[in-house]
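Question (not urgent): is this output format expected?
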Amino acid sequence: MEKDEKPLTLLEMLQSVLAAAFGVQSGKNRSRDFSRGKPSHFILLGVIFTSFFVLVLLGVVKLILHLAVG
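Got this back:
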């Protein structure tokens, strides 16, 4: 395998998921993801990131409501 054909590392996939979530993914990285990444890995990381994001938002809202009422 050539260097460009290696599977993506976990760190590269996490960076891609975060960049895509915030809408700042570069064209170069997007091309890399489509050529070297597996869709199932990105789907799984996307679901995990989204769940974590929602839980953090819920925690922040509960904390703010607790502080506002108390």
